């Protein structure tokens, strides 16, 4: 399966040019895993060229090939590694060449997206918030605080039964009120579709 994918997408063309980024985009649909792939390529290429994978070995390769010695396998070092691999390979076809060394620049800008009409009308949104805010407040008040639980642990048993009864009443109100919420959501949908 991987071989079929590689040949059906003509990925060898990009591999011959050492264009790891394009291969990553074509395989993954984006740049997922690009950093790992670049790291693996750098280490593998160093070993095949007769060097180790330590920073000192990267520096040695860079010094021997007239590169800035920084110990980082960046675009220029990868390009030099690719050239060296092609030399070691002997009979390289004309299509095998190094990809251009480019530094990527990311430009971000906001793109306005026109909206024909709001998804939920302001009136409906306001009404739903007013009707449902009590529910979230009740849950936050009753169940959301650890202090309440520690307080309950030290309570008188009679008071604890009272608090538990109030909790049951609140839960029952929410459960029975849930039917009202479902009806309200359906009516909101009808308003939106109209």
Description:
The chain crosses the membrane at residues 133-153, 159-182. Pfam families: PG_binding_1. This protein folds into two domains: 2-89, no CATH class; 122-193. 66% of the residues lie in helices and 0% in strands. The chain is built from nine helices and no strands. It has helices at 2-8, 11-16, 20-28, 34-48, 55-64, 75-89, 122-143, 146-153, 157-193. α4 packs across α6 (75-89) and α7 runs antiparallel to α9. The model has no long low-confidence stretch (mean pLDDT 76).
Brief overview:
This protein has helices at residues 2-8, 11-16, 20-28, 34-48, 55-64, 75-89, 122-143, 146-153, 157-193.
Please compute the radius of gyration using only Cα atoms. Answer: 32 Å
Overall 3D form? elongated
Annotation, overall tally of beta strands: 0
Low-confidence stretches: none
Helix/strand order, N-terminal first? HHHHHHHHH
Largest sheet entry: none
- Overall structural class, as computed from helix and strand content, comes to mainly alpha
Pfam family, one: PG_binding_1
Transmembrane segments: 133-153, 159-182
Domain Peptidoglycan binding-like: 55-81
Keywords: Membrane, Transmembrane, Transmembrane helix
Note the topology.
Elements (H helix, E strand, L loop, with lengths): L1 H7 L2 H6 L3 H9 L5 H15 L6 H10 L10 H15 L32 H22 L2 H8 L3 H37 L1
InterPro entries: Lysozyme-like_dom_sf, Peptidoglycan-bd-like, PGBD-like_sf, PGBDSf
Organism: Pseudorhizobium tarimense
Protein name: Peptidoglycan binding-like domain-containing protein
């Amino acid at each position: 399966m991987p071989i079929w994918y590689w040949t059906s997408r003509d990925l060898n063309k990009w591999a011959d040019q050492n264009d790891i980024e394009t291969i990553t985009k074509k395989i993954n649909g984006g740049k997922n895993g690009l950093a790992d792939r670049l790291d693996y390529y750098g280490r593998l290429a160093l070993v095949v060229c007769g060097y180790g994978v330590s920073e000192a070995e990267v520096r040695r390769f860079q010094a021997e090939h007239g590169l800035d010695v920084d110990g980082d396998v960046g675009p220029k070092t990868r390009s030099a590694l690719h050239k060296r691999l092609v030399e070691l390979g002997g009979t390289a076809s004309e299509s095998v060449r190094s990809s251009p060394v480019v530094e990527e620049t990311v430009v971000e800008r906001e793109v306005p997206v026109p909206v024909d009409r709001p998804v939920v009308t302001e009136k409906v949104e306001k009404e739903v918030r007013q009707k449902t805010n009590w529910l979230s407040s009740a849950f936050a008040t009753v169940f959301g605080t650890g202090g309440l639980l520690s307080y309950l642990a030290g309570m008188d048993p009679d008071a604890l039964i009272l608090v538990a009864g109030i909790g049951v009443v609140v839960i029952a109100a929410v459960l029975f009120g849930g039917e009202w919420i479902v009806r309200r959501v359906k009516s909101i949908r009808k308003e939106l579709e109209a």
